Every structure is written in C-alpha cells, then in structure tokens.
C-alpha cells in the first residue's frame, strides 16, 4: 500500500474558486449544435427545437458559462447570417471544419438555450476574417438597449431585452497557421487592442479575453503571449490557454502525468503575464482563461476519412474511457490548485464533440468524463486551501509525477470541506492522511469513488453505466485526523461536514 499525506492550514488559502472555472464550450462543429442541443422534430425537443434531455444533463453538470460559437469556426463567421427569420438565413461554407453551416441556429437561439440550461454565454468575436468594427456591431446587437441600428435590429428579431453578455473572447487561436485570418503576435495584439477599445467604449461593463497560444508546444509560445499582452494589456482582462491531451502511445502512466504538464503550462503563463505587468509597472493583473482543455485523440483517425461539405457530420466524437476520466479528475484538481489566477476554464466541449454528453435520435447519455466534472462542479465550490501534498512519485515524460493528485476546497458558509483526489498508481491502493484539527467537529458524510478494472472501459448508449461512481469509499476522521484509502487507479471525492 502506498502512503501519502496532505498538509493544510485553514489560513493558508489559494483563493476563492471563481465558479466560471467550471465552464464549457459549444462550437458550431460536428453535432454539437445540430442534434446536440438543437434538433427540431426530435421527441426530445421543446417548442423551440432545443433538446430537453441535453438541457437536463447540462443543468446536472452545473456549468456556469458556455463559450460560443467557436473555436476555429468563429474565425470565418458572419454573425449576421445567424439572426433574423430562419428562412432568410444563408447556408455558408465553413472552411474551419470543411462543412456546410445552415445558420438555422444562431446567437439568439443560443441565448435562449443558455437561459434554459441555467448558464451564461461567453461570446467569441471573429478577429480572423473580420475585425474591430464587426466585433463592436455584434456587441451593440447583443448588449445595447435600443435606439441604434443593431440594437433595434435585435428588437425587430423578437428580442426586446439585451442579452447582456459580460464575457467576450477576442478571436480564437490566432497564432495557429490553420486559423482563418492567422496573424503574427504583433498584428493580433494590435487588432485585439483596437477591438477591445471599441467594445469597452460601447459597454465598459464587459470583460475581455485575449488569445494566448493554441497549445504549449507552439513554436511561438511565450513570445506570443508577451508580445500580445504588450499591445493589448490595458484593454484585456484575461489571457487564454488551450491544451488537449492524448494517450496515442498507450502509455497510461505517462498519460496520467499530463496534469504535471498542465500545472507547468499555467505557471509559465502566469509568469509571462506578471513579466508584462512588471514591464508596464502596472497595478492591473492579467488572469487566465483556460478556455479549451480536455482529452482529444480517439476520433483523430475517423475524422481523416470524413466526407467534406456535408451538414453536421459525426466529427470529433471521442468515446471516452475510464483512464480519460481519471486524467480529467487530475486536470480539474490542477486548475483548482491555481484558483488564484485561473478564473475561467472551459471543458471543450459539452455535447457530442469531444464531450461529456452524447446524444442520438433515441436519447442522451453520460460519458466517463462526465463524472469527475460533475463532482468538482457540484461539490468543489468555495475556497481552495494551499495544500502541501507529500506523495511518492514516479518518473514520467514530465519528470517526477506524484502518484497522488489532490486538492481541498473549504466552504465556510456551508461548513463543509471537499477533498478531490486521484491515486494514479496502477497496482497499489494508497493510504492518505490529513490533519484536520482546525476543523473541529467535521466528519465524513460521503466518500465517492470511481474505478474500473479495465482502464479502457467506456460508456455507450447501449451500456451507459459501465463506468460510474459509487458511494462507500473507506475514510474516517479520528482524533482530528482524516484517513482514507484510495483504491488503485481511482477518482475520489471525500465530502466532510461539521456535525
Ligand atoms: O475544440 C476543437 C478545436 O480545437 C477548436 O475549434 C479550436 O479552437 C481548437 O484547436
């Protein structure tokens, strides 16, 4: 049995968890929108064609914010195509994903969907093929009350009240040569500054996210962030990070060590933000929006063979297995451990496309990765404690990787504590201890665990409960010390409350 301990002090905190760390993402891509959240004529659809079964599962996940409408898609998007009478909306060629976009679902419908799904919209503007003027017009359409061309157009389209969208992404992955309207860091930084300036002149209450690198191994990483921020520091509030992980080599220990990679990525971007702040001798801190993160690799091969220029194909439909869920748990822990700087994060994506929720004509189901997200989003809200995790380590492609990933979130109002923990050992259980004497009277109310003998086990529509959590893990508080046994390769949620 492996042994590890977690050291905490009630007064040593990282920060309050910004609820938006549990955000997600819906792009016009594959079957995310069409058949995922919108399917008129389906027995699951409501009067607007919105799938009620999907909405129920999104509400279950308790997602406070959903990024929309892309992704790569946004860099060629004309938002005007997606509003007004549906019969007048044009079908367009989408060069990002080689498909036809019918525009039968657009930003007004998305705003209605968001209300029903109990979430807020995080809107992206096209800074690829378009620029500051169009970004400002879109903001006017969404947030301006009335008496101007675009606000009155929205009212004519049946939306008297402004959508009042508070969080905006200035483009998407503009460092990527695959991106429509790809730019150098300086070109993008200037465009983002000017778009941001116009947008904040129109609505000073909004917050803006500038594009960081598309992933850590981009050749321009670090210099991209520094140059972009030097140009648009005063206009923006957050810098984005994107990263997807995969187990292409079928090497589970290395795959599970990816959270070490995420941790370093976040620390590096924090350093760059602070470097630019120091250069500018500014008071303002730039925080992070990790607005695309997930496992993505299972569908790569199938996607190579897809027919082009069709509507809503089965694209990026990763079927997630148990080890993916374990890594998602570790990545959530990593994001939470950086709650002082990571204020927004979006699991990419939400429905059908690299998603926790899948749909078909006959129903919706939860993929394996649904569960750790559900647990963190529902139970790990409050204040993250600064934990010192003393764990044995193993050698990985990222260097030393701890067998134990864990975080403690305290909720003083509810007098509760939540421990999220992953034991990455593939062959040994782990005994953990944590001195909780500062939390007098706290007792374990539930120890949820999720594990499976087969690391590759999946949930399908026919067999949706192959991988699912159960209550009944072994843990207790005795003489003020929490002790628990974490099964080999397991995800754990230990919930404590003051008795
Ligand atoms: O989420 C899928 C794609 O991954 C997004 O469109 C893009 O931003 C990223 O490369």
Description:
By secondary structure, the chain is α/β, with parallel strands linked by helices. The protein has two domains: 2-9 and 385-498, Immunoglobulin-like, CATH 2.60.40.1180; 18-379, Glycosidases (TIM Barrel). It has helices at 52-61, 107-116, 132-143, 149-156, 185-202, 223-232, 252-256, 258-280, 300-304, 322-337, 370-379; strands spanning 2-7, 13-16, 23-25, 65-68, 92-94, 99-101, 120-125, 167-170, 207-210, 238-245, 287-295, 342-347, 357-360, 363-366, 383-385, 388-390, 393-396, 399-402, 404-411, 416-423, 430-435, 442-450, 470-471, 474-478, 481-486, 490-498. The strands form six sheets. It has an eight-stranded parallel beta barrel with strand order 3-4-7-8-9-10-11-12, surrounded by six helices. Helix 1 links the parallel strand 3 (23-25) and strand 4. Helix 3 (132-143) packs across helix 4 (149-156) and helix 10 runs parallel beside helix 11. The longest helix is centred in the middle third of the chain and has 23 residues, at 258-280. It is globular and about 70 Å long. The chain starts with a strand and ends with a strand. 52% of the residues are buried. The model has no long low-confidence stretch (mean pLDDT 98). Bound molecules: alpha-L-arabinofuranose. Alpha-L-arabinofuranose binds next to loops.
């Amino acid at each position: 049995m492996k042994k590890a301990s977690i050291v905490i002090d009630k007064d040593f905190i990282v920060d309050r968890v910004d609820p938006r760390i549990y955000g997600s993402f819906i792009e016009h891509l594959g079957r995310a929108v069409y058949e995922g959240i919108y399917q008129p004529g389906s027995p699951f659809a409501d009067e607007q064609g919105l799938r009620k079964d999907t909405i129920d599962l999104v509400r279950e996940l308790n997602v406070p914010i959903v990024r929309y409408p892309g992704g790569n898609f946004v860099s060629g998007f004309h938002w005007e195509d997606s509003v007004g009478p549906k019969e007048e909306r044009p079908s367009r060629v989408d060069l990002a994903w080689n498909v036809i976009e019918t525009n039968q679902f657009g930003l007004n419908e998305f705003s209605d969907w968001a209300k029903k799904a109990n979430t807020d919209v995080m809107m992206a503007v096209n800074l690829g093929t378009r620029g500051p003027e169009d970004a400002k017009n879109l903001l006017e359409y969404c947030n301006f009350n009335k008496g101007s061309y675009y606000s009155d157009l929205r009212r004519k389209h049946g939306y008297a009240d402004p959508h009042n969208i508070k969080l905006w992404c200035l483009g998407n992955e503009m460092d990527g040569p695959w991106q429509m309207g790809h730019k150098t860091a300086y070109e993008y930084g200037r465009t983002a500054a000017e778009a941001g300036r116009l947008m904040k002149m129109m609505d000073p209450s909004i917050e803006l996210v500038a594009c960081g690198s598309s992933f850590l191994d981009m050749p321009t990483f670090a210099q991209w962030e520094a140059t972009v921020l030097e140009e648009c520091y005063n206009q923006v509030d957050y810098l984005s990070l994107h990263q997807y992980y995969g187990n292409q080599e079928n090497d589970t220990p290395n795959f599970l060590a990816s959270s070490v990679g995420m941790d370093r990525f976040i620390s590096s971007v924090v350093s760059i933000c602070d470097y630019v702040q120091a250069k500018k001798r500014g008071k303002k801190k730039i925080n992070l929006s990790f607005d695309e993160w997930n496992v993505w690799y299972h569908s790569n091969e199938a996607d190579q063979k897809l027919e082009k220029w069709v509507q809503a194909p089965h694209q990026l439909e990763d079927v997630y297995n148990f080890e993916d869920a374990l890594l998602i748990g570790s990545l959530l822990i990593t994001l939470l451990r950086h709650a002082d700087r990571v204020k927004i994060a979006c699991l990419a994506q939400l429905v059908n496309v690299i998603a926790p929720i899948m749909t078909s004509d006959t129903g919706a189901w939860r993929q394996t990765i649904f569960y750790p997200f559900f647990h963190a989003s529902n139970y790990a809200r409050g204040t993250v404690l600064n934990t010192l995790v003393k764990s044995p380590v193993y050698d990985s492609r990222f260097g030393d990787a701890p067998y134990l990933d864990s975080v403690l979130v305290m909720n003083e109002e509810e007098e509760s504590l939540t421990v999220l923990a992953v034991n990455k050992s593939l062959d040994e259980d782990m005994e953990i201890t944590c001195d909780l004497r500062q939390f007098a009277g706290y007792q374990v109310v539930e120890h949820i665990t999720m594990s499976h003998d087969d690391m590759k086990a999946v949930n399908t529509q026919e067999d949706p409960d192959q991988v699912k959590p159960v209550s009944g893990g072994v843990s207790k508080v005795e003489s003020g010390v929490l002790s628990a046994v974490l099964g080999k390769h397991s995800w754990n949620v230990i919930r404590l409350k003051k008795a």
